[in-house]
Design goal:
single chain, mainly alpha, Growth Hormone, Chain: A, 2 domains, 20 helices
């Protein structure tokens, strides 16, 4: 069988598609981060209670939970191309509308809708990117996807701090997400539909047209590797071998982001509890954010060289040990504390990029978007719960116990990965999604991954 599509060189089309697709996580990081700065002005102006502040802050996360699942289902049913732009048009409109709200209720509603649009974009964009990208570049490009979250967060803090100097600056802050959103929408226009999805829908002539346009006039569906295994609907996932894969992805994803979201959301409070106070705590939080980004970039470099399975296991192991060190020695020298915190931020990068690599590789085209969306939604439950419990744990259990619990959650991700993580490096999407192909290779890797 021809491998002209999966062995194709990385073209300008692939690079542009990767850039346009990464707009979703950029906007996620921007939107979730800038609300923290805006709340400095919103809280006194609207006289928000503690519960109202929590709802304003959490509304986008709740929207992402629902949007990721529904967006995944919609992209499998109606295609990737249409929703690739429609979801962000909704985001732009709701972002602008935030500048005109007069009370907390409408702000919460709009934040919910914005989160919905951001959540929907994840399965849409990653499915499209995975289905066009050559095998050699699929891991790095999907992995690089997550790094844009931290770029978006950094830009949001810069913009927020600047606009904070103006009266009612919070209105401009929240509306400002429309600017990158509109740019991304315009860039995405004209992106072709996935030929794999078109083929699954029986639209072979359209699929051939897309393949000829992207890969050359002589490339047809005959050059597109078939996907192994029979067609499976989303409802059948739990009754087939794919149910085990869904459980693996949901558990490892949850174990990865529960401690990370907690550390990111409450970084200054955690560092102050570890005896780093004042400016040192804020500078430490900024430095850790940079380390998160660097960790993801290092993992992108290693995902093909090291392999998916070794990368995720080692990432969980060493990041978990760094958290364990913080839990066992909470009164250590400030420099030691910062080193351990930075080590965690750097080493957890492997699990972060695999949140987007594995889900897109381990499921067939007809349910890829739905599976990514469902796993993303389920993992957000644990992330929201963990984030909510952090301040309670800090006050009730103390910093040492809190960090030990975070270490246990992280190391649980390692155990699950040792048991279930397959190796999909170098495989076509069809080979990776086929139950009888991907699992044995992962099993063979299991005995040597930690050697």
């Amino acid at each position: 069988m021809s491998h002209v599509v999966d062995d194709a060189p990385l073209s300008s089309f692939h690079k542009k598609l990767a850039l346009y697709s990464s707009g979703g996580p950029f906007l996620d990081g921007y939107i979730l981060s800038i609300i923290g700065v805006a709340m400095i002005q919103i809280t006194p102006q609207f006289r928000l209670s503690a519960s109202e502040q929590g709802l304003v802050g959490a509304a986008a996360l709740i929207g992402i939970f629902f949007g990721a699942f529904l967006g995944g289902w919609l992209t499998d049913k109606f295609g990737r191309h249409l929703l690739f732009t429609v979801d962000l048009i909704a985001l732009v409109a709701c972002s602008i509308a935030q500048a005109f709200v007069g009370d907390a209720v409408w702000l919460i509603v709009l934040r919910l809708l914005i989160g919905f649009a951001v959540g929907a974009d994840y399965p849409i964009a990653t499915s499209l990117l995975a289905e066009f990208t050559p095998s050699k570049w699929r891991g790095p490009l999907l992995g690089a996807f997550v790094t844009m979250w931290f770029v978006g967060a950094a830009v949001a803090y810069i913009v927020g701090q600047f606009l904070l100097t103006f009266a009612d600056g919070w209105r401009w802050m929240l509306a400002s997400a429309a600017i990158p959103g509109l740019i991304i929408v315009l860039l995405r226009m004209g992106t072709p539909e996935s030929p794999r999805w078109l083929a699954k829908m029986g639209r072979h002539e359209e699929a051939n047209e897309v393949l000829a346009k992207v890969y050359g006039p002589h490339v047809t569906l005959a050059d597109l590797p078939e996907e192994g295994g029979a067609n499976v609907g989303l409802g059948e996932l739990v009754r087939s071998g794919y149910g085990k894969r869904m459980a693996f992805i949901t558990i490892f994803w949850t174990c990865s982001i529960v401690p990370l979201f907690a550390v990111y959301a409450f970084g200054p409070a955690i560092l102050e509890a570890l005896n780093l106070s004042g400016d040192l705590a804020h500078l430490g939080s900024a430095a850790i954010t940079v380390m998160f980004l660097i960790g993801c970039l290092v993992a992108v470099f290693l995902v093909n060289r090291m392999g998916r399975r070794p990368l995720i296991i080692h990432s969980f192991l060493w990041a978990g040990l760094a958290l364990l060190g913080l839990g066992l020695f909470p009164s250590a020298d400030p420099m030691v504390i910062m080193i351990l915190f930075a080590a965690y931020a750097l080493l957890i990068g492997g699990t972060q990029i695999m949140q987007w690599v594995y889900p897109n590789e381990l499921f067939p085209t007809e349910v890829r978007g739905s599976a990514v969306g469902l796993a993303s939604s389920l993992s957000r439950i644990g992330a929201a719960t963990g984030t909510y419990l952090v301040p309670l744990a800090l006050s009730g259990l103390g910093i040492g116990t809190t960090m030990i619990i975070a270490a246990i959650i992280t190391l649980l991700g390692m155990v699950v990965s040792i048991a279930w993580a397959p190796e999909t490096r170098g495989m076509t999407l069809g080979q990776a999604a086929a139950l009888e192909t991907a699992a044995p290779k992962g099993t063979r890797s299991r005995n040597r991954v930690l050697s």
